[in-house]
Amino acid sequence: RNYRSRTECRGDIQRLNASFLAIYESLIPPEEEKEKQKQLMALLDKHVTKEWPEARLFLYGSCANSFGFRKSDIDVCLAMGDADIDKAEILLKLADILKSDNLENVQALTRARVPIVKLMDPTTGISCDICVNNLLAVINTKLLRDYSKIDIRLRQLAFIIKHWAKSRGVNETYQGTLSSYAYVLMCIHFLQMRTPSILPCLQEMETTYKINVDNVECCYFDKVEKLEGFGSRNGESIAQLVWAFFNYWAHSHDYANDVISIRTGSLVSKRAKDWTRRIGNDRHLICIEDPFEVTHDLGRVVDKRSIRVLREEFERAAEIMQYDPNPCVKLFEPY
Ligand code: CTP
Ligand code: MG
Description:
The protein has ten helices and ten strands. It is of the alpha+beta class. It is globular.
């Protein structure tokens, strides 16, 4: 070990904090981008309501959950009301309608895991994916956005972790690593578990928002403006949190027994969820419970090979945070 432990040097931590905050600032989308998204949504809305007057469009994913970087594509959900519709048929029709307008690369991908229409709008330069009746995604988008309003450190931490995951190639679900959605859940859980806690557990509080989607009861406390200052008893800085986050996933998390759960704001046992063995393709090697679809493990994409890749990356990051004199260079080094 060539370097003194970082915790020994305060000046060091402050410099590192400033570097992380600068990275965070550089990734935040500028206001104009929101305007362009609205413009494209208005155009799509016009076409959709003409064909299906009852239908509605919702933004979901990173463009709406507050964890999106600049120049992101947008995710849109077409809500049809009727649950018994043929999604492929709707998507093919939608693609036909949109092709007639000034939109480029309009394609219906009806056989994808989540069937969508893809397109690019040359006026705004924004690409977009439209799915049908994926309302749980719209609701979990709202939950993430609500959490982000409670303490700014969630957004800062999640930006740094997502940026790290993208740089290191561990944000690729088709290669067995984790989705951005999973990383944000990990950040929320991590901040719920700090002492004193930086985030509350909204689903364990009084219900102020309630909706039943696809037979899943979604309810939680959404009056988050009332929770201003919740985390202020905890003074940890972003650099300390990034260090502790990687340390947790590198050295403290019990992969054999624990499930992280933002629904309960605590750890749940794999045994209680019957996630101890491989069932079909779900191996449960790293367990991240979906807040509403509680039988969904966001870690189900991870296999025997990719769990090693992931854990080695967590260990590498923890090591860099601990000993590297200038961690920001190495941490985000392209893999
Ligand atoms: N989603 C979900 N279940 C999953 C994966 C995703 O419900 N297993 C939904 C979530 O609403 C999530 C959205 O799909 O917000 C988009 O997921 P993802 O692409 O992982 O996250 P983004 O926030 O869009 O991240 P990125 O900036 O990488 O596009
Ligand atoms: Mg996305």
